[in-house]
Structure to design on (582 residues):
């Protein structure tokens, strides 16, 4: 019959397998279901499995050195109250046979039906004979994105955009400072053109009239220039609502793919059906999962394989605290469209011995965050704040405002208190002809105390509680750069910059925001999940945000669309491989 999670992971073993010290995991215990796990962190050798040459580890090394509470160990006291808690499906408990109401059979089981899962299920069922079951714990799959990064394909060829694959793969590894294995990036570099062409075929099969097209991006400043790798999506059926919310088109794409999947005779798509744990045989092969629906727990046997396509863990605050940098989550808005991404795939994979990306986890973080649990671009202030300047609580600029989103966000969190008091400062000059419209959309921020309007910089500085002389000096210096068309401090491109002057001055709270985590279970070239000895866990695949080995530390926002490119490519390859037994 095989064994469920219970045989593969003890409570202590979970912490060891996850590669997370109890300093971080203690907070995570509630969400992970590790009741009874000591938080004293007194054992040695538990941070990682101790291997030859690694020496002995002490779980209390930091607290021994700093017996008093100190900000030098920020992860100990960072408690972000703005990241929402989603429904965690994973269960680390012995589920008795008496609770399992039935057993079902399939060839390939796909867990998750967002972008990656719908692609994987379509790919696995393409032959018309492989029986595919795709289960999604929410009532709809997640989808929010704008473009897809690939290294070629028909749309690229038609646009005359030829990419040197070897160069692009090296750019990706360089962005991770080579802290990633070769295979995952090689898989994307070599097979994303094929996956992109295949995706257009699925759109042609669907009802959404979706078309992919090459999208030339704006040149990046500060030597961030890379080859143009992005293709985007359009459909005559999409209303103007898709242009009002960045990434809104992703929802339509996922629905279209899921609709196509639901019409296939050899595919079975189910919503509101969470997977709670994997089943691994005594021989070590993953043979299926225990899932749950309205009738209770049931077993799904998957003869050819299981694909984890559950996304990241951005809606699991405990996992964010355990895996991410403290500054990345301390003061950030949540730009997450659904609550389903709670790390279920990572946790289920870890429970059967899977290897997780090393710490710190990579996240996709943008700026333009507000002190609110969910950031909405509908507040419509982007056109105002993007042309102003960023200042910290001292009233000084700290980075070029022309950096890519990710870099700006990191610069914000590098400020005092992880960017809790950083601002965008602008004036009516930046508003231009749209002053009335922008002012109206700025009002919700003013009402909540997140933005200020003043008739002078002295008045504005008083509202911001920053030194007035410093703020005025900062603005005067920036205005001089506008005249000279040269930023002597941070090398911001100044060709289109305008002076901060006019009838009114504005300051807007400007913090980081999280869209997604992009770290997961390390996979090989065929999307097999690897254990900590880099051996394949037979029968188990991971793709998209649930997979790892692709990013390290940061998401490379200056490279166009690698997250969606990975989702589509790995979903396509994992589905194909599972169906074919590769």
């Amino acid at each position: 019959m095989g064994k469920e999670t219970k045989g593969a992971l003890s409570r202590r073993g979970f912490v060891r397998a996850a590669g997370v010290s109890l300093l971080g995991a203690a907070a995570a215990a509630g969400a992970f279901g590790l009741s009874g796990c000591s938080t004293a962190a007194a054992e040695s050798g538990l941070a990682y499995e101790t291997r030859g040459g690694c020496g002995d580890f002490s779980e209390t090394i930091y607290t021994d050195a700093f017996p008093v509470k100190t900000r030098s160990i920020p992860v100990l006291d960072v408690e972000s109250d703005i990241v929402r808690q989603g429904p965690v499906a994973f269960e680390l408990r012995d589920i008795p046979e008496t609770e399992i109401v039935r057993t079902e059979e399939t060839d390939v089981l796909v867990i998750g039906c967002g972008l990656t899962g719908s692609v994987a299920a379509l790919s696995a069922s393409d032959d018309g004979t492989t029986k595919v079951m795709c289960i999604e714990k929410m009532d709809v799959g997640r989808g929010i994105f704008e473009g897809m990064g690939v290294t070629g394909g028909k749309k690229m060829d038609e646009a005359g955009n030829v990419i040197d694959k070897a160069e692009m793969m090296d750019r990706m590894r360089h962005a991770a400072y080579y802290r990633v294995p070769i295979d995952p990036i090689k898989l994307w570099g070599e097979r994303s053109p094929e996956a992109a062409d295949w995706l257009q075929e699925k759109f042609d099969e669907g009802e959404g009239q979706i078309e992919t097209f090459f999208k030339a991006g704006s040149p990046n400043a500060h030597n961030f220039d890379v080859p143009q790798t992005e293709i985007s999506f359009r459909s005559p059926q999409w209303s103007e609502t898709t242009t009002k919310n960045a990434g809104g088109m992703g929802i339509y794409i996922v629905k279209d793919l899921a609709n196509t999947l639901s019409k296939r005779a050899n595919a079975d798509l189910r919503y509101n059906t969470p997977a709670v744990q994997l089943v691994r045989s005594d021989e070590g092969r993953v043979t299926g999962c225990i899932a749950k629906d309205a009738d209770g727990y049931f077993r799904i046997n998957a003869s050819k394989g299981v694909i984890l396509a559950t996304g990241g863990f951005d809606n699991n605050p405990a996992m964010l605290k355990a895996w991410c940098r403290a500054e990345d989550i301390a003061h950030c808005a949540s730009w997450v469209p659904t609550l389903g991404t709670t790390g279920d795939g990572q946790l289920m994979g870890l429970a059967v011995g899977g290897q997780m990306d090393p710490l710190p986890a990579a996240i996709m973080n943008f700026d333009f965050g507000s002190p609110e649990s969910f950031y909405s671009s509908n507040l419509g202030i982007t056109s105002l704040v993007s042309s102003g300047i960023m200042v910290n609580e001292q009233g000084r600029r700290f980075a070029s405002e022309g950096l890519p989103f990710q870099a700006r966000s990191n610069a914000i969190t590098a400020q005092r208190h992880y960017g809790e008091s950083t601002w965008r400062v602008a004036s009516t000059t930046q508003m231009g002809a749209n002053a009335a419209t922008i002012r109206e959309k700025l009002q919700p921020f003013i009402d909540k105390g997140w933005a200020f309007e003043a008739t002078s910089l002295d008045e504005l500085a008083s509202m911001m509680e920053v030194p007035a002389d410093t703020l005025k000096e900062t603005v005067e210096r920036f205005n001089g750069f506008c005249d000279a068309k040269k930023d002597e401090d941070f090398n911001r491109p100044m060709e289109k910059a305008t002076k901060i002057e006019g009838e009114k001055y504005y300051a807007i709270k400007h913090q980081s925001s999280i869209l997604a985590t992009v770290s997961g279970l390390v996979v090989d070239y065929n999307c097999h999940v690897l254990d900590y000895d880099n051996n394949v866990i037979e029968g188990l695949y991971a793709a998209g945000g649930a997979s790892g080995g692709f990013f390290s530390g940061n998401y490379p926002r200056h490279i166009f669309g690698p997250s969606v490119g990975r989702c589509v490519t790995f979903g396509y390859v994992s589905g194909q491989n599972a169906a074919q037994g590769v």
